């Protein structure tokens, strides 16, 4: 599961060779710095710890950890396994790690929507708009049974906090790789707001 850390720039659309308009997301992918190399002898598994985006305020622990790699402390640090190439401590991994036409998985934190009702949160239809209906248009309706079991079952779909979850979108096609600006253009949408961090996995 090799990959990169990126930052969502925003959405746009491009035309393919057949003139079809394709919605796509632009991601600033890297350059990421290898801040630690996990080995079986020391850590019990093999992985690369990768950092992205410089921190403004740094504590001593983060500063010392980054100094071993000859870098500054990073805001986002993620571990990846299964890199094909051999990277050493302090090496930079750029957007050239990806190629046009290949498929990637992208995970991030979805936009927080706050407290929402059942119509927006779960896609309920709502009550009928006729037969004297006045104040229960977007209400959930009945949530429980009668005197038996005399309770509401766990997992009942109700209003509550929506968004702010870890979401993974699989098999997004890479449409363009702009190496000079470290940009990755993928087909479709990606979780999160603008400037939010995403993890791009091969």
Entry keywords:
single chain, 202 residues, mainly beta, Elongation Factor Tu (Ef-tu), domain 3, 2 domains, 6-stranded antiparallel barrel, 4-stranded antiparallel sheet, 3 helices, 8% helix, extended, structural constituent of ribosome, rRNA binding
Task: Give a written overview of the molecule.
- This protein has helices at residues 40-43, 60-67, 118-122; strands spanning 3-15, 21-29, 32-38, 47-54, 74-80, 92-93, 103-109, 114-116, 160-162, 166-178, 183-187, 197-201.
- It is mainly β.
- It folds into two domains: 3-112 and 166-201, Elongation Factor Tu (Ef-tu), domain 3; 113-138 and 156-163, no CATH class.
- Strands 1-2-11-10-7-12 form a six-stranded antiparallel β-barrel.
- β1 and β2 form a beta hairpin.
- The chain starts with a strand and ends with a strand.
Write the layout of secondary structure elements.
Blueprint: E1 3-15, E2 21-29, E3 32-38, H1 40-43, E4 47-54, H2 60-67, E5 74-80, E6 92-93, E7 103-109, E8 114-116, H3 118-122, E9 160-162, E10 166-178, E11 183-187, E12 197-201
Antiparallel strand pairs: 1-2, 1-12, 2-11, 3-4, 3-6, 4-5, 7-10, 7-12, 8-9, 10-11
